Amino acid sequence: MTTGSTPEHGYVHNKHKDDVLKRLRRIEGQVRGLQRMVEEETYCIDVLTQISAATKALQAVALGLLDDHMAHCVADAIKGGGTDAEAKIKEASDAVARLVKS
Amino acid sequence: MTTGSTPEHGYVHNKHKDDVLKRLRRIEGQVRGLQRMVEEETYCIDVLTQISAATKALQAVALGLLDDHMAHCVADAIKGGGTDAEAKIKEASDAVARLVKS
Amino acid sequence: MTTGSTPEHGYVHNKHKDDVLKRLRRIEGQVRGLQRMVEEETYCIDVLTQISAATKALQAVALGLLDDHMAHCVADAIKGGGTDAEAKIKEASDAVARLVKS
Amino acid sequence: MTTGSTPEHGYVHNKHKDDVLKRLRRIEGQVRGLQRMVEEETYCIDVLTQISAATKALQAVALGLLDDHMAHCVADAIKGGGTDAEAKIKEASDAVARLVKS
Fold first, then answer.
1. Residues with Cβ < 8 Å from B36, sequence gap 6 or more?
2. C40 class by beta-carbon count within 10 Å (0-12 exposed, 13-18 middle, 19+ buried)
3. List of chain C residues whose C-beta atoms are within 8 Å of the C-beta of residue B92
4. Model-level pTM?
5. How far apart are CA C16 and CA C12, in angstroms?
6. Which ipTM value was assigned to this complex?
7. Which tens digits make up the pLDDT trace of D48-68?
């Protein structure tokens, strides 16, 4: 982690942060597009296709954040050693389990 | 299907349409909330939890639309008989496959 | 449905039944392979890759059965009309929801 | 990691190994049960319910292995430092991505 402004949370390298925000804004646009489709009574199947696309885009953001989290927060905690490392690993595993089930 | 305004697409009973739109607006709010969390450098794991919630909410909308689609469009096509029925069933199956994989 | 031996359950056309059984036997082999991998202390990541493959294979069987179920049982119930059709559609939707969540 | 016989692969603590094998044998039994259900032309929806159960059981094994992998292999690599740590984190992230998509 190189940016002084983000001492704790590894995912917020300025460059990565911008990328995540850009993706989330695109997803927001997809969800607004879904509302329009429903308003205009677009054929269900086309709405479902678009929902699958938005879901995949959300999962891609999650996987990106998780990567960064493991490479920074979890790695730093492990280097620091002690019970904090175990807690961070447990927490990351639980997040993975929620993603797999969602 | 009872509403005269939506002859083709079963999911758009006026009551159901409002419900779907309400859910999609809530999801849009969740995605905007995610942007705020990233802007404010919220802890990754909390962002991931929120992404899982938004993903589940999108899937719930998809399952609701699919139910309605099967109960109306697909059922009507089957009652009508012929190749259209087969095409509708194939199309619904493909949509299910995309949901399961997304 | 053309085979006299399977009056109720559409997925068991003799040809399709053989295909499903062949896939399930292959999955059984994959699960036994996983046991061997664990016995022999294969590298975790390789075990995980194999688990993902078995999971996908199970989902593919499920999607195939669901297709057939919709094309036969559900379609027949809809042609028959009445509350049975609604019950079948509800049941299929619930099965889809379980698949999407599993 | 305390067992001398498994210097590399964290998941194979003897106790944990037995537990994983027991779960995999149970899943093998579920898959054989599925074959019997198809042989006996059990109602599709019941077969689908059982497939969802087997899929969930496989995912639970995967999540358990991943936990252990992160707590041992990945943590050891991070303590060791260098490019190996990065490679291990990347590899674990890729495995998570495959699980989420499967």
1. none
2. exposed
3. 70
4. 0.84
5. 6
6. 0.84
7. 999 999 999 999 999 999 989
